[in-house]
Amino acid sequence: MRKLMIAAVATFAVAGLAACGESAADKAAEQQADSIEAQGEMQADALERQADAATTDAQEDALNAQADRVEENADRAADRVEQQAGNADGGMTTANTPTTN
């Protein structure tokens, strides 16, 4: 009986550790999200450089606002990718999944 209980506890412990691990889909989604964020940052940086070279304050403000929107949209897209990957594995890793509000 004691051996059976030890085996059962060991089985649950291993299952618990497996559930905590990051799945391949999660890792791929994280890499994709990082890429989306990096691309958004690069585009925003380019717009900000254009804003620095703008000849009027209105142009500078408009380009900076556009840079902000590009970066925010990239962040939202990255969050959606991570959330979809978290939901694709049956909810096992959604505890730290960002919301897309």
From TrEMBL:
Residues 1-24 form the signal peptide. Keywords: Signal. Residues 31-101 are annotated as: Disordered. Residues 68-82 have a biased composition (Basic and acidic residues). PROSITE patterns: PROKAR_LIPOPROTEIN (PS51257). This is Lipoprotein.
